[in-house]
Amino acid sequence: MKYYDALTDFIFVEDEPQKADYIFIPGSGYGELAQKAASLYHRGFSETIVVSGKYSILKGTFDGPVSPPEYIGKEYRTECEFLAEVLRECGVPGEAVLLENQASYTYENAIYTRKLLGEREVKTAILVCQAYHARRSLLYYRLLFPDTQFFVCPAVTRGIKRDNWFKKPQKIDVVLGEVERCGSQFHEIMKLSAASENQG
Prior knowledge:
The protein has about 200 residues and is α/β, with parallel strands linked by helices. Helix content is about 40%, strand content about 10%.
């Protein structure tokens, strides 16, 4: 066992897909997420895909697709618009796709997806995210959907996988950056939650 195996298990969450009420996709410039979601849809794991994403709050605009190669150079206003086109080209009918185009970071992906669905009951959901982004995505969606059972079915992007992230400096930076964000971004959320419980 390697000393970093615990980090691998923490970050790279992955489940076998199960029948679910919805498939959730947090925003991204990586079309592989939509391709993975389309595959799950066609295999009968869910009848509805919820795509969330405007563009990164850090950039203030959507720079366009990063991959797959055939989409690079095409113009889209939002991540949501891009991912929806990939879904269409993968044969997913428009009526099976719900679009959320306001979120500009992962927490908002979960927040606005919850708002979009309103009072609809979500007993089960498949979360299709980037493999190295799985833990943080899951934490946020669980926060907004506390009564939902999630099945994480990630797509590999940037070539970063659980069995190779520790082999190149750039991949190490990405994954350990996720470890740091899981601490820093949930710090205040957890303290506020604890304070609320203590008041109760």
